[in-house]
Amino acid sequence: MNEINKTLYIPLYGKAKVSKQNMILKDPYAEKIWEKESFPIHGKSASKWLAYNMAMRARVFDEWTDKMLTEYPDAIILHIGCGLDSRCMRIKQSYKKWLDCDLPQVIDIRKTYYEESDNYHMICLNAADEQQLNTLPSDNTAIIILEGLSMYLTNAQMHDFFKVLTKKYEHLHVLMDIYTEFGAKASKYKNPVNDVGVTTLYGIDDIEDIIQDLNIHFVKEYSFTPDDLIDELKPIEKMIFRILFTGRIYRKIYRLTELAS
Fold it and tell me: By three-state DSSP, how is residue 110 classified?
């Protein structure tokens, strides 16, 4: 696997670690897959603080997905850059069509753990390839999950990504995490993905710069670390975690943004 593909093991480790502690996120698939894969995790990637953060981020994405499915039960769900994530299993709402999408090497591994069904499929997809994006199934409404993806695409590639999807789907609902430009630059030296060889990431300061000429708009910004999830930590851990992963300084690095058309 290349360096970018290997980054999927960082959130997988975090979710498995937290799930075993029966807090924040219950994810038996992450536990099982992590035990089988046994990818070497070290340095910042093995931090319990990062594990808490990864689990909270996943929980926010899960709850948003459930909310969208409640409002748009007939929508197609596209989890692009899915890695080995089990969101399709964790969410509470039923769905009519879910596509987990990632690069071929990732999908090959994924297929050893997940089975396709009438309403669930796994497909090889490069989010930077417009021709591949155009082969996605058509539908009226699409719920797009972009967790841990945008920072590997240039601003121009992100613009082209949304250009294709806004033409393909009449209604889009997107949740995506993004680094700011400062965050991307800082990540060259202090980011867990460095531990697997990734040193080039891309940031977005103003999402409007990416979507200004497209039929899609900014909706709201979410917290990666809601108070109710932080409250599941031990008192001393809460204090340290808030210093590391909340507040204005963290927002200057990393943001969670919802878009819609």
Answer: helix
Per residue in 106-119, pLDDT (tens digit) is: 999 999 999 999 99
Expressed as residue numbers, the domain containing 81 is 58-260
43 lies in some domain: no
The 8 Å CB, 24+ separation contacts for 202-206 are 202/150, 202/151, 202/152, 202/153, 202/154, 202/155, 203/151, 203/178, 203/179, 204/150, 204/155, 204/158, 204/178, 204/179, 204/180, 205/180, 205/181
What lies within 8 Å, CB to CB, of 143 at 6+ separation is 65, 68, 69, 72, 75, 76, 77, 78, 173
pLDDT (tens digit per residue) in 41-67: 767 778 899 999 999 999 999 999 999
Q: What CATH number has the domain bearing residue 95?
A: 3.40.50.150
Q: Could you give the CA distance from residue 195 to residue 186 in angstroms, rounded to a whole number? A: 15
Q: Between β-strands 97-102 and 76-80, what pairing exists: parallel, antiparallel or unpaired?
A: parallel
Q: Are strands 169-179 and 254-260 parallel, antiparallel or unpaired?
A: antiparallel
pTM of the model: 0.93
